[in-house]
Amino acid sequence: MKPTNYESFYCYDSKLSVHLRNKGFTCLTIAKNRQTNNLFSVYVRDEALKNELKQYNLNLIK
After folding, report:
1. pTM of structure
2. How many CA atoms lie within 13 A of 53 on its CB side?
3. What is the pLDDT of residues 40-52, one digit of tens each?
């Protein structure tokens, strides 16, 4: 099996992670940062995710 190259999006915001999963984005993994002990989720960064993050941030400003 040949590895696939992709850009990762590390999400440390639990509300944002729930939002992304509710919108249908697949979480590759949930892990804990060894140094800070904070949980994070990893998503594939593609155009759809970039657009959703822009929309999410615009809604936070309102």
Report:
1. 0.85
2. 13
3. 999 999 999 999 9
* Long-range contact pairs involving 40-48 (C-beta distance under 8 Å, separation at least 24): 40/10, 40/11, 40/12, 41/10, 41/11, 41/17, 42/8, 42/9, 42/10, 42/11, 43/8, 43/9, 43/11, 44/6, 44/7, 44/8, 44/9, 45/6, 45/7, 45/8, 45/9, 46/6, 46/7
Strand partners, 8: 44
State the alpha helices, DSSP H only, in the chain. Answer: 14-22, 47-61
